[in-house]
């Protein structure tokens, strides 16, 4: 059996998403905890990098669902329910829109005009929250500070799906 199968690809994509989400949320929490009011631009810059990384990683979950839709439809509904739920929340929070319109580009693909930095800040605030307390709530939705697999959060969903894929034929194979 080759490593070229959907279970293996999805597993490794989920491994990467999990690692990126855990790292970015951890760094963001550390930045908030060590916030220096005398040097706010340093913290703002770090949080911007962390939040953009989180948004890009969450957007990848949407892409995984779309690209591997046939694979997911073949799985039992009880296995995919939380994954579909989290992707629906990602879509409802306009996370994918923010990634496409603000985090990854300088021009609006539809209008060909420069992106609106004001609109980008508004969308980011709607996703992560307007202050550190709301941001910490967003991070808890992604990956709570005292994480356990039983906690409902995005990372728990990703880990469960990864583990399920690992148990499928070909899911135990090396990274393609």
Please provide a written account of the structure.
With 176 residues, the protein is mostly helical. Helices cover 69% and strands 0% of the residues. The protein has helices spanning 6-33, 40-67, 69-73, 77-92, 95-103, 117-128, 132-142, 154-166. Helix 1 packs antiparallel against helix 7 and helix 5 runs antiparallel to helix 6 (117-128). It is globular. The two termini are 12 Å apart.
> What is the overall shape?
globular
Percentage of residues assigned to helices: 55-70%
Question: What is the rounded Rg?
Answer: 17 Å
The proportion of residues in beta strands is: under 5%
Quickly count the helices.
Answer: 8
Task: Please trace the helix and strand order, writing H or E for each element.
Answer: HHHHHHHH
User: Span between N and C termini?
Assistant: 12 Å
Number of strands: 0
Class derived from helix and strand content: mainly alpha
Residue-averaged pLDDT, rounded? 91
**Tell me about the biggest sheet?**
none
* Low-pLDDT runs: none
Secondary structure elements and pairings:
Elements (H helix, E strand, L loop, with lengths): L5 H28 L6 H28 L1 H5 L3 H16 L2 H9 L13 H12 L3 H11 L11 H13 L10
Helix pairs in contact: 1-2, 1-7, 1-8, 2-4, 2-5, 4-8, 5-6
Briefly summarize what is shown.
This protein is mostly helical and 176 residues long.
